[in-house]
Amino acid sequence: MENRGRGRGRGRGRGRGTEPGSNKEEKVIGQPIKQEDKGVSQPIKQEDKGVSSPIKQEEKVISKPIKQEDTGVSQSNTQGDKRLEKPIKQDEISINGHANTQKVPDAKVASLAAELKKDLNQTVQNLEVLSVSPSKQKQPEAKTVRPSAVNVGSTSYSSEIRGKEYKIPKRPGLGTAGNVIKLKANFFPIKVPDITIHQYDVAINEDKLPKNLNQRVMIDLVKSNPKLFKSLPVYDGKKNLYTKDPFDFSGKKEFEVVFIEDDRTRKIKVVLQWAAQIELRTLHESLKATSKDLIPKDAIQCLDVVMRQAASLKYVPLGSKFFSSDGSVRIGCGLEVWHGYHMSVRPSQWKMLMNIDVCATAFYRSMDVVEYLYEITGYNCNTERQPLNDHKRRQFHREIKGLKIEITYMGKQKRKYKVNGVTEKSVTEQMFPIEENGKKRNISVAEYFRKEKKVEIKFPALPCLHVGDEKKTVYIPMEVCRVVPGQRCLKRLNENATAEMIKIAAKRPNLRQATIDNIMKNANFPQDKYLNSFGIQIANSMVELNGRILPTPGIKYGEKDQPLLPANGAWNMKGRRLYKGAIIKKWGLIVYDIGKPLQNEVLIKFQTELIKSAKEIGIQIDNPVYQARAPANELPESVISKAFKKDKDIELLVFILPGKTPFYGDIKRLCETENGFNGFSDPGVQNLIKNKGVCTQCIQSKNVLKCNPMTLAQLCLKINSKMGGTNNVIDSNNKITRPLNVFKEPVIFLGADVTHPGLGDKSSPSIAAIVGSIDEVPSRYSACVRIQGHRVEVIEDLENVTVELLKQFYRHMKVKPRKIIMFRDGVSEGQFQQVLFHEMSAIQKACIKLEKGYEPGITFVVVQKRHKAKFFPVNKNDEDRSGNVSAGTTIDTVVCHPTEFDYYQYSHSGIQGTSRPAHYHVLWDDNNFSADELQALSFMLCHLYVRCTRSVSIPAPAYYAHHVAFRSRSHLQNEEGSISSSESDTGQKLCRICERQITKIVSKTASEYGNKNVLCVDKHITQIRCLCTER
């Protein structure tokens, strides 16, 4: 028998032992299983041929620290903090960020690196071949990998960085600060037996079958082979089948299933092949910390499939979510909201838990295509006399492309097709070739359906749908097509549909808690035949645990103002002056008259009140030097040019726009990107904006009409931060900030996020944004943006970006940071190792590139918001006004990771629906934060978001990075709302190698514009460039 060493989604903890049903003795994998071994294979002996010996502890070359003299990197300066005060020499920072002092490794080092790589490759091959049971296999103490020759994407890591292992740190202890409250969490304890589960690979000869049909095929296979399936198996609908009782055959076995669908009978071949065995005992040992093994991911994956099996057969499954059309709500545009629930298995600090949460998403309504056409375009086939115009045809083409439709003229046999698009010609004009009596001729779609299908066309002016293979000419009239039910909408919803979606999905905490309890009741897990087959039990009640409400940091405004103490994440700055007000010498006010124009009296009142509000809080501003009304047909390029021709020293332009309009994106692109600068036809205006820069502030006309103090105050906060002012800082004498040692020496805070294209987009690039603080508060940030590959989460150019941000910090602070604290947004748990390998290495290399021996302490924290954990106060006295837990509530027990440093934290107060906490997971910590210190720091940073007088849900650096990434994506969007690399009609340059768009964003700080202000997040300082030639 052959050991295949399969690695598809299977982590540690699996025993590759003996395949059930095999009686052949083999030294590699096929040792007979003794009764006392409980199905776990024997460890491989040293003398077994064909398999290399396990590496002894003292022989693990890949884990041996590299000596400093072997790397070409100088040893760390032992003079402590004094070395950090040494200024960075100008000749050590070249234009491209490379330090000139780093030595090139000699031939000896190159030889050593080659040997290390060879040893590592051999070790990887050995691990692929070895079949050692999880109970016998010796595993590392933690998630440990050296950076030596590890490939992530296209990046190869060297061993030059510090000689340290990349190991996710253990929890330093539990937090103790704050007032303790009782909470319930949407987690339910699971009782998992100590059994062996056998995993089989499934191969179905029709690979294109959807998961729901694969499930039906497997059900038929199980029913028709009762002797083979001694107990009920579970199947993930793809490649993996799990069973408690092994099958009585060795190797692989082929079966034939007669499958009936839409009155069509098919014979489908199914091949089962033993893959591995999973010991659930190892799961318990890792949770109880009695084992040094990692938490076996394949065991958790197996439990997930067991838990979800019944739901996947009853509802419409979408990953870990399950939806039903019962109680659906229409939201327009041919869409309706389906309700469902999320289900996943999670390891915790004491046992396995099941996470249950309610969810909702948009599905396409099952309707005739002509009705869908009316929903999208408003074109009524029964009343319209004019044919469908080209604008509406293209609009409908964008919406229906990719949808599945079924034909309705064949009775019970409803064949399904995927729509490629809408034809330009009508059903009577669209021709395609057919063969009659050995001769080819062209025939119209209408004539073909009338003659061959006996279908009279009712709407001959409508175009056809092009379906099936894109290379073939399969055209079907719209009127005989219907949208297949159960299709999730992957495209971005319009503004109205989004608003309706939010209203429907938002549930108050008490209602969400009751809904979750009702889901558990309806699921009836005690009677679930699949759970019972594996002996798994689920508790009916949510877990209860303690949370802690942390002390609130004080907010400091003007020098003469006393610090404010927020109440549940909010504060009122009435009567306060900004910490540092901006000086605005010249500004302009431009009104776009689209629709109903604003009266002059309204504009005068708004202008007067805005200036008054700004001066009251400390912003120095006078009347605008330029005022204008712009007609609806005048492009922003012309409007902005007129302003600068009037006065070349304008620093700020305030635009009043009639709601959400494409002009907003045009304005930002023109004033923030190099491509935008080049869009000005007047060279003088182009050079003015390029060299001096201009800030822009947009406001909707409906808010101008209101002109209430709150709107004006928020507008002034945004303007002040954009113009280089500082709105507020944290009170350093507050009881939450006073104990923090992090601010006792220079520290830079980094925030990073990567925005990806929509789910239906298969080609557009991802955009990475990184921000870095440039003051001691921290309040002001500089930003960098990079384009990278489609859906690539790892930031590919982080090394150069970090160099840029460290330089910016030094230019403003005149000192190098001794600590670097990164808050990384958007990383899932499955990407932790990959991000740690690449991005930690990149930051460390950036420090060495700046100055040899420069090694600041780095703390790398992932911030997650896309999780399903919810917490509910047990005592109503602990609720806020919305029924949510109070701002500052922190949880680091029971539902958190068994050993690693993570916690949940509510930093904001709830407004609508049920609040979601941020989940912090520490991947690296040179600074040795205690739980209380890091939890206080993250809570404090959530109070420094400049746009409002409320704390936000994630730390300000991560929030700013999120904004920069999405702003940058809007800079790249073309007229169709897409940045696909395959089509670029915006005139932007494409990389000749990978055809990605190359777009530059302003690469200047405000200080480089010629004024004394400094950069804020809304004025980016970097450029986007393609990396395909830099790897």
TrEMBL record:
Residues 368-485 form the PAZ domain. One of its GO terms (molecular function) is RNA binding. Keywords: RNA-mediated gene silencing. Pfam families: ArgoL1 (PF08699), ArgoL2 (PF16488), ArgoMid (PF16487), ArgoN (PF16486), PAZ (PF02170), Piwi (PF02171). One of its GO terms (biological process) is regulatory ncRNA-mediated gene silencing. CDD domains: PAZ_argonaute_like, Piwi_ago-like. Coiled coil: none annotated. Residues 1-15 have a biased composition (Basic residues). Residues 1-102 are annotated as: Disordered. InterPro entries: ArgoL1, ArgoL2, Argonaute_Mid_dom, Argonaute_N, PAZ_dom, PAZ_dom_sf, Piwi, Piwi_ago-like. Residues 22-70, 80-92 have a biased composition (Basic and acidic residues). Residues 691-973 form the Piwi domain. Belongs to the argonaute family. Ago subfamily. This is Protein argonaute-2. It comes from Hydra vulgaris.
